[in-house]
Write a structure and sequence with these properties.
single chain; Aspartate Aminotransferase, domain 2; binds pyridoxal-5'-phosphate; Aspartate Aminotransferase, domain 1; 2 domains; alpha/beta; 397 residues; four-stranded mixed sheet; globular; seven-stranded mixed sheet
């Protein structure tokens, strides 16, 4: 079948897509309309934590579809309750609101912080966020983001998001004023090119927020659910946020995200928050299947192990071709290429049957399935090696 068989023009043109239509996925692999196979190190942007179409999620959804798809968010359902209980136990936070995507979870976090400010901090509403941050594509989350490309879009922005610099505590302190209610950040800025907040910076932010009576909001939409080798990134650091957002891996590929809060921070009144599909048992069943898999003994240990293998193979390439640093944690990593050739390398990888993401002109991002094999890491590194070798006109050993 050729691409002409597909009426691609029926979809809104919101990004440049390759002339390929994906029709099947399994584990670390995708197949396109011509039957060509691709090794996937994008996985829906760190979404498919158990790989493509895992049996655990397929079974959970098909069974749940026969029981109950949605009774309405105005009623309790057993699956949402079970998932909320699991998440509160795992996270140490007290209450959960389920959403359909990460942006909606962050929008909820922003509303929750503003509500907290209205009730407890004399109407304080400002949330300090960071240059380079990415929190989603609703108007408020774009305003909270610190992405350069968003700066001139959809003006006027939602006010109340002064920007500090990542890993620069003094810049955060300068932003604190009488209207500040919270500090919000990703433990690792994924879209910015996998830029980690240092553990010490995260601990300092926790102390600073406690000292000033502010809320600490962690956006773990990309780093949560085992991606960095712990269920939540903040476990590496030994802190706990007041508000936490999860998405991506939580549904393992289906639209499911969550806003969690401590009892003290959870201050919505009836009517403040809601949504037709929120907490529907069909998606929550997928969430339960994901948590069962990721909570299994040795699962997180194997993410750490595979992460170390990935780091080692990227470091080898970096050394061989005199590239930049390898950054990240667990199975969220980046390779700095030292030159603005990432899009070109990703396009060549695509031709060679490897999906890679280029979040910055000089950076490749790696966010494979958490269940990938050592062999798949080696296959990826071999393809990348060949591409980099050709670009340099032969390997420099
Ligand atoms: N926050 C972070 C850290 C993300 O990486 C993303 C998506 O890439 C979002 C929020 C937005 O999530 P979604 O695309 O599900 O709305």
């Amino acid at each position: 079948m050729t691409l002409h068989n597909y009426a691609t023009q029926a979809l809104m043109e919101i990004t440049a897509r390759p002339a390929t239509v994906f029709v099947k996925g399994e584990g670390s692999w995708l197949w396109d309309h011509r039957g060509k196979r691709y090794l996937d190190f994008v996985q829906g942007w760190a979404v498919n934590c158990l790989g493509h179409s895992p049996m655990a999620i397929a079974d959970a959804i098909s069974q749940q579809a026969r029981e109950l798809i949605t009774p309405s968010p105005a009623y309790y359902n057993d699956i949402a309750i079970a998932l909320a209980v699991k998440l509160t136990k795992l996270s140490g936070l007290d209450e959960v609101f389920f959403t359909n995507c990460g942006a909606e979870a962050n929008e909820g976090a922003i509303k929750l912080a503003r509500k907290y400010g209205a009730l407890n901090c004399d109407g304080a509403y400002e949330i300090i966020t960071f240059d380079g941050a990415f929190h989603g594509r609703t108007l408020a989350t774009m305003s909270a983001s610190g992405k350069k490309a968003f700066e001139l879009l959809f003006e006027p922005k939602v006010p109340g998001f002064p920007k500090a610099r990542l890993n620069d505590l003094a810049s955060v302190k300068r932003c604190i004023g009488p209207k500040t209610v919270a500090i919000m950040l990703e433990p690792i800025q994924g879209e910015a090119g996998v830029l980690p907040a240092t553990d010490q910076f995260l601990r300092d932010l926790r102390s600073l927020t406690k000292e000033h009576g502010l809320l600490l909001i962690l956006d773990e939409i990309q780093t949560g659910i085992g991606r960095t080798g712990k269920m939540f990134h903040y476990e590496h650091v030994g802190i706990k946020p007041d508000i936490l957002t999860l998405g991506k891996g939580l549904g393992g590929g289906v639209p499911l995200a969550a806003l969690l809060a401590t009892e003290a921070a959870s201050s919505f009144a009836h009517g403040d928050q809601g949504g037709t599909f929120n907490g529907n048992p069909l998606m929550c069943a997928a969430g339960l299947a994901v948590l069962a898999a990721v909570s299994r003994k040795d699962f997180l240990g194997s993410v750490t192990e595979k992460g170390e293998m990935l780091t080692a193979s990227l470091a080898k390439l970096a050394k061989r071709y005199r590239l930049g640093e390898v950054r990240g944690r667990g199975l969220l990593q980046a390779l700095a290429l030292g030159k603005p050739v990432a899009a070109e390398v990703a396009a060549k990888a695509f031709e060679a049957g490897l999906l890679l993401n280029a979040p910055r002109p000089d950076t490749l991002r790696f966010m494979p399935s958490l269940t990938l094999t050592q062999g798949e890491i080696e296959q990826m590194a071999a393809i990348l090696d060949e591409i980099l070798g050709k670009a340099k006109g032969g390997a420099q050993h």
